[in-house]
Structure formats: structure tokens, C-alpha cells
Amino acid sequence: MGSRTAQILFPVNVPGAFDYAVPDPMRLSRGEFVFAPIGKQMKLGVVMSLGEAEPGRALKEIAEIKATRALPLAMLDFIDWVARYNVASPGQVLRMVLRSWKALDPSPVATLYEPTGDRPLNLTPARRAALSEGGPFPARASEIAARAGISPGVVKGLVKTGLMRSELRPVDAPYPVPNPDRAGRDLTEAQSVAARELVTQVQKDRFSVSLLDGVTGSGKTEVYFEAVAEALRQGRQVLILVPEIALTQAGLARFAQRFGAEPVAWHSSITDTERRRGWREVASGRAQLVVGARSALFLPFAKLGLIVVDEEHDTSFKQEEGVIYNARDMSVLRGRLEDRPVILASATPSLESLHNAQSGRYAHIVLPERPGAITLPDIDLIDMKVHKPETGAFLSAPMVQAVADSISRGEQSLLYMNRRGYAPLILCRACGERLKSPDTDSWLVEHRATGRAVCHLTGFSMRMPRECPKCGAEDGLTSIGPGVERIADEIQTHFPQTRVEILSSDTTATPDEIKARLGRMEQGEIDILVGTQMVVKGHNFPKLTFVGVVDGDLLMGGADPRAGERTYQTLVQVAGRAGRADKAGEALIQTHHPEHEALQALVAGDRDLFVGVEMAMREMLGLPPYGRIAAVILWGPDLKKVKDLAKDFVTKAPRADGVEILGPSEAPIARLRGLYRQRLFIRADPDVNLSKYMTTWRAKQKRIPTKYKIQIDIDPQSFM
Ligand SMILES: Nc1ncnc2c1ncn2[C@@H]1O[C@H](COP(=O)(O)OP(=O)(O)OP(=O)(O)O)[C@@H](O)[C@H]1O
Ligand SMILES: [Zn+2]
Predict the structure, then answer these.
(1) Which CATH number characterizes residue 67's domain?
(2) Atom of ligand 1 nearest to the CA of 188
(3) For the whole model, what pTM was predicted?
(4) Which domain holds residue 148?
(5) Which tens digit of pLDDT belongs to each residue from 375-392?
(6) Which residue, by CA, sits nearest to atom 16 of ligand 1?
(7) ipTM of the shown complex
């Protein structure tokens, strides 16, 4: 037998795994973590595969196996596939998997305290506080002390008197076990049918995709809970992906209520401690229920049973930096590799998913109405060419009247305006200068609440200047167009006595403030909520009956072939917040283009009409789902050199039938943080393996100057 080798992948951005010799008598398996020399360093990597050494080839040796749980084999395949599909390096994908090195080691231990249960009558106030307010137990003395407002010495004193005991224990506690057999809501007949179909898919114990296609407020969550329960009963783990914004306390509380246990919540802003705890518990198979944003898809589940992607149409499932991937599509891939079912849920499914459902690749499960007597809101258009607001105002008379009506009924209104801040443009009346972000093609946005001018692209901000930075004219700067703050001001002047609040993902609003605002809205303590995209997602406000869309045209146009689809989805979702409880809802949309097909379909409540027209257009143009698309973005500090690089890159495109290349051309954001940007658009017939094509193409561009970058985006969602 020849000597053995192992292919080790390190979590770094290099093209692939490296070969190492396996020293005798080391025994290795795929998925194990090992230390191996790379340059002068010893680095931790993963064994992707094993093989026989070619004679005469000198290889460095693996130094040591790390004593920890190996990555599951399906996870290794997943890393490979994600890298290949998205034309990324597998090392970069591995880095997304290994979000916490500490998770590879057992939980740290600490001396934890808990009451013994004895409770004598004559306690000092400090001791009583420690026992009654120091929990949840077991906890560190310092934690108990902080919660009870006492000194840690008191806790230790309680141990001496036998009222508390202490023990060396793991700090990262296991998660509570969800109970699938707690009763959910009583389902309607239509809901039960849908739930049974999903449960059957779970029982089949193999890969399938189901599209749960139900109108807003139809109870999709309640329905997929039944499938979740079934997978939990099988003793397997469940992953539920939701848009980051839906991971609020209220959103998570629904899972806790249904299954009697807090799920693992996984998103970008969890603490390092929660990250290592979550990762370790998921890897061990002990944590059964995970609710997370897109990155949760890269957790190393030991026995995955089901993946649910809620609001599957949502653009936040697409990651636009580092490894560019779409978590919805990668969920389907992961389901296939694990051979387990996937559920995609939405009131406004993407055309890709609808196409897959219509062609029979996905099971199509439809909920056509809301439960009980609750109806979908009526939707009407306001033609802004007819109902012109006064100069400097943005709300038409019918819109203001509808808000007035809702106030007089004691109900709530929501005004949707997808622009943060006060005004999207700051202009100098003296010289015409527009305030721009430094080194970036983006206007600064006035935020009146904080008195700052902010770049929404880079986060740059400065104090709102008094004089024009170009000509020096004083008080010449004027704000053009509306943002949420301005709309809130305008509606407040119409109704000075009402409680108006703004909900937007602002740099100034902390997650706690946002949660508090959502809570006030739910409790009916706000009369009019003015909000951005943030208000669209999955919220339930029982007293909300009127929804007004300030600018129904904002989402249309531009280079994005899905602009019509997005407009339609957003408007259906926004309108769908109205009338979800016992009162009927109404929505009004201000527009300059009432004849637009997306708006007409919306008013008619005829999704099939919209989908039919849109699908026919996509088919004619060979766009998804009738073709594949990709984008290339070339970045660099010198305009001419970026252009040259782009031209050179285009000449290297492999010849292939059914592939069209458009560009290069200047990107809509032509400069970002000092780097110039050029774009290419690639369209291919459905039978072309576009990932493979792009990989071959990219490999032909051997050399690119340092500080220059070629970024490949498979199935782009952003066209900026
Ligand atoms: N059978 C039922 N009986 C009573 N209430 C129900 C029933 N089904 C759903 N509901 C309630 O209706 C509301 C909407 O349900 P849910 O959030 O599951 O809908 P959804 O389809 O996910 O909505 P959306 O897509 O608009 O976010 C919730 O408050 C839910 O508790
Ligand atoms: Zn000026």
C-alpha cells in the first residue's frame, strides 16, 4: 500500500484544498479538523477527502488531529456545491461555516450557584433578594448579585448556611427541548388540508420542495408549524429561515408559544457567547429548533429534518458581499444533499418558485383566503396627475381623507414610504450643487431628527451644513423630495392631536427602540405609523385598517428585470398588513402611472393576470425562470484601468451557444468608497451550466492588478 494523503481545506480565500501527507500511524476520516503547516504557521483546517500519494511527490505532513466533533459529510458536500454554484472559493464558504472557533471546544466551566430550596423565615433583606430575584439559576455569583442588587459575598454566604449550593458546571447551557405535541390553533378546513400535505412530505423522509403559496394573513405560519412538529417528533432538527427583520422578540415568541421552548435565534448581531453556544448545540444535534437569518443555513446540523424558508421571495436572502449567494436557492440545494424536505412559504412567491410549482417540480400548496370571515383589503389607486398635492406636500386629498376616516373610527393607519430620512436630496439654490458622499456616487440624505446628512450606501455622515460647501451661500441649501420623516411631519400637521411615529432601519434607532415601537403599534398606542420596507414583513397589527402607499412608482424602472415583480410583491405585502383581525382593511396607492400592469392586477386582485403577463415577457426575453443570468462587477481605483480590465476580460469569454454578453458599461453606482465600477450582464439559455461557464471564464483571466477585483454574481438581485 502506498502512503496516504489528505486534502485539507482552510477557511481562507484560496482556490481550493491543499494536499498533505498523513503520517503513520495517524488515522483520519473526512470532516475531521486537523492542524497542518501553511507557510510558517500551523493552521486549523478540515479533511475534505483522502487519497493515495503519487510516488516521488514530497508533501508536508499533517501535524495533529483536533479532538472535536467532525463536520458531517453532507456539510462537506454542501461547502463544495455552494462554492461551485456561486463561483466562490470553498475556503471562503468554510469560513462562513466556522463562525465560532470556540464552538469546537467544550463549553467553558464556571462555579454556578442555585438555591437548595430551603427557605427559613428570618432572612436578611440581601439574602432574601438573592434567592427571589437572583435567578434564573444556576448562575454565576456575579450574575446573581447584579440581578438582585447585592454583593457576590452574600451569595457565597448563602452556600455556607446551606441555602444555596455551588458546582463547577458548563457555562453554555443546552437549549430547552421543544415539545411538538403542544396544541396549536384550531386550523380551518383549508389550513388542515395544506398542513396534512406538508406533514406527508416530512413523513416521506426524502428530498422534496413544497411551495406554500397563501395570501397575506392566511395562516401560513400556523400551517408549516405542523410540518415542523412532525420533524421534531422524528427526533430531527428543523431550520426556519426568515428575513433578518422578522427576528424580533414578537416573531420569536410565536415559536416559543407553539413549542413551549425558545428556539435558537441565529442572526448577524448575536453575541459571541450565543454564537458558540448555538453552533455547538446544533453540531451536537441537541438543539432541535433554529430560527435564523440567511447565515443559519451554514450551521453544521447533525440530523437535519426540515428546512422552511419563510417569505421566500424576500431579497434579504441574497448575500451581496464575500460569497454572493441566495439562501433560498441554497436551501433547496442543502435539502437535496441531506435528502430532506424543504418548504418555501410566501404570499407573493418569486416567479422562479411559481414556475417550478407550475411545472410540477415543486408541490404547490395553496391557501386562497384568510381564515374565518376576514377578507383581503380593498386596494385602489390615486392618480397623482389628477389629485395633485399642494406645493411642498406629498399626500393627496383622498389619502389624507382616508387617514381621517380611520382616525374617526378609532383605528390605525400605516403610511408606507420606502425612503429613510427627511429628504433624499440636498440642493443648493444658489449654485445648483447637490451634496454628494465623498468618493462615492450617491447623494447625501438629510436626516432632520439627528441634524445630519447621511450616505445610505457607505454610512458616511456629517453635520448638516449651514452653507453650501461649493459656493458658500448661506441658508441656500434646500431639501428635495420626501423621506419618512417628512411624510410624518406632513401627516402630523393635518392631525396635530394624533400619535405619529416612524419605523425605519435607521442608524439612530437601536433594535430595542424598534421593538418598543412595534410593541406600541401592536398595543394600539400609535395612531399613524410611517414606515419604510421594515413595516412590510410579517407584522400583525390587529387595529390597523388603512394602508397608504405614498409613492407606488418608486420601485419601478432601472436595469433590474425583476422591478415589476418586486413592485407587485411589495405592494401586496404592504396592503396585506391591513385588516388582519376582525375589521376590514383598505389600501390606497398614489401613482403617476395608474395604467401600469402590476398596479392594475393589484387593484383587480388578480395575481394570475400579473404573473401571466410577466412570465410571457420573461419567456420572450429569455430571462429567469426561462433563462439564467449572471453579472460581473469589476472594481478598481483608476477609472481607465478598470475600463481596460473590463474590455480585456470580455475578450476572454469562452465561446458557447446560448450565451449572450452585454457590456461592459459603467455601473449605476459608478464609484463606491473611491473604487470605480464596471458591469457586465450575462444571459444564458436554461440548458447552459452558467456557473461552470463563469468559472471557466474567470480562470482565463490569470492576472489582475492588486487592488482590482472581479466579482461574479450568479442570478443577480441587485443591479447597482
Ligand atoms: N385557524 C386560525 N384560527 C384563528 N386565527 C388564525 C388561524 N390561522 C391563522 N390565524 C391568525 O391569523 C394571523 C395571520 O396568520 P399568519 O401570520 O400565520 O399568516 P401568514 O400567512 O404567515 O401571513 P403573512 O404572509 O401576511 O405574514 C395570525 O395572527 C394568526 O394567529
Ligand atoms: Zn452653492
Answers:
(1) 3.40.1440.60
(2) 1
(3) 0.91
(4) 109-170
(5) 888 999 999 999 999 999
(6) 219
(7) 0.96
